[in-house]
């Protein structure tokens, strides 16, 4: 067993342990330290697939005057990582420092007592081992960072200006983050989905933003580098697996809502948005690109769905059982897909 796999299992154990807790505790600081050490092990254990390219691109001295449109339109990551590498002069440490940035934002967004107080405690360690996030920090790195910026906009920002700022950071980290723009708008005008009704004007703005979003996602798929297209080298075809997850979540939510379509839509706006958007992009973008859109939508949908699921059960035993089943479902693909499991058993650094 590699150290990478061993510490991944430790975090899985923590996710199950936190299923028994209801309130925020100081133990989350210990979890943060363990997650930080785990990510250090990940970075020193080998670069796989796209991460080989990310490590290599750190050495490129990018300049706005000479860089191609691809790098300029996603300058937050490309230029930020390049400048950071120029200071550190080590690819492993540079990527780990970037890991610490998104990890800190993730823990704050999910662990603060204000905006994310309704998100169950177990979600915090669970997100680190959740299969789509594993794919993020092991392979599709910019998508992961963009997702964390969006999560912070949803759960960590206390005013619209800060939320908008992190939304822009997400957009210019990976342009496909525009997929969240209409959802962030509705989230803002309904005060975190707490207002039951949306005015006709806001519905019109949402529809306009949705059309802009669809055009933007399609444009972002036309990249001019090796990262502009999804790599199929992982050997994992997850487009329909993600779709199955979305439909499974919708079935659970529909049953919990006593088979009421009105309740289902009202309490699961994010899930409905994600399913409709994902299905729309599969024929337009093809499997590989749609797969990454599915990953990004699933990461942001999961905490909201977990909070709704937790509120649906009254007794502590019911909550614990559903939490543990949810954790099992979220980490199972890591062990079911051999190529995903191979991320955790890379013993030595691959040449970049």
TrEMBL record:
<feature type="transmembrane region" description="Helical">
    <location>
        <begin position="92"/>
        <end position="109"/>
    </location>
</feature>
<feature type="transmembrane region" description="Helical">
    <location>
        <begin position="144"/>
        <end position="161"/>
    </location>
</feature>
<keyword id="KW-0812">Transmembrane</keyword>
<feature type="transmembrane region" description="Helical">
    <location>
        <begin position="26"/>
        <end position="42"/>
    </location>
</feature>
<feature type="transmembrane region" description="Helical">
    <location>
        <begin position="6"/>
        <end position="21"/>
    </location>
</feature>
<feature type="transmembrane region" description="Helical">
    <location>
        <begin position="293"/>
        <end position="309"/>
    </location>
</feature>
<keyword id="KW-0472">Membrane</keyword>
<protein>
    <recommendedName>
        <fullName>EpsG family protein</fullName>
    </recommendedName>
</protein>
<feature type="transmembrane region" description="Helical">
    <location>
        <begin position="271"/>
        <end position="287"/>
    </location>
</feature>
<feature type="transmembrane region" description="Helical">
    <location>
        <begin position="121"/>
        <end position="137"/>
    </location>
</feature>
<feature type="transmembrane region" description="Helical">
    <location>
        <begin position="167"/>
        <end position="188"/>
    </location>
</feature>
<feature type="transmembrane region" description="Helical">
    <location>
        <begin position="239"/>
        <end position="259"/>
    </location>
</feature>
<feature type="transmembrane region" description="Helical">
    <location>
        <begin position="200"/>
        <end position="219"/>
    </location>
</feature>
<feature type="transmembrane region" description="Helical">
    <location>
        <begin position="321"/>
        <end position="344"/>
    </location>
</feature>
<keyword id="KW-1133">Transmembrane helix</keyword>
